[in-house]
Amino acid sequence: MPMERIWSYAPGSGRVEGEDLTGCTVVASDGTIGQVDREADHYGLRHLVVDTGVWVFGRSVLVPVGVVESVDPEARKITLACTEAEVKAAPRFRTDSETMDREYLTAVGEYYHGLPPRDTAEA
């Protein structure tokens, strides 16, 4: 996948532009990781901030929308093309200001772009 695609929803993901994803459950390939707190698009680097609740000791994680495998608006569920461990190992999200920090977003994008492709994800 080209690097810039990590910041864009895949064409077949089911994402409807303008639809509010806040509160949707976010599921990795091996389990639920949390709920969408918000969606942001700074510098064209579109991403989700996911509140993990107690899963990662009450912290949030930032996930580029390019790892979204599918969006089910009726079930309010977003499925990611990565594992829980891969999400946990991503560059740590500490403060809201990082959603506007180009250097941090670049590091997150490079991390997710470097993950091994999945059979179900577009390579």
Automatic annotation (TrEMBL):
Pfam families: PRC
UniProt-listed Gene3D superfamilies: Photosynthetic Reaction Center, subunit H, domain 2
Chain coiled-coil ranges: none
Domain PRC-barrel: 17-80
Protein species of origin: Streptomyces ziwulingensis
Name recorded for this polypeptide: PRC-barrel domain-containing protein
